[in-house]
Amino acid sequence: MSDTFPIDLLRTEPTPFYYYDTRLLADTLAAIKAATAGDADFHVHYAVKANAHPELLHYIAEAGLGADCVSGGEIRASLSAGFPADSIVYAGVGKSDWEIALGLDADIFCFNVESLPELEVINELAAARGRTARVAFRINPNVDAHTHANITTGLNENKFGLAMEDMIPAIRRAEALSHVRFVGLHFHIGSQIEDVRTFIPLCERINELQDRLDAEDIRAELINVGGGLGIDYVTPDRTPIPDFAAYFAVFREHLKRRPGQSVHFELGRSVVGQCGSLIARVLYVKEGHSKKFLILDAGFTDLIRPALYQAHHCIENLTADTTATERYDVVGPICESSDVFDRQVELPVSRRGDLVALRSAGAYGEVMASGYNCRELPRGYTDALLKGRP
Ligand code: LLP
Question: How far is the CA of 331 from the centre of ligand 1 (A)?
Answer without folding.
Answer: 26
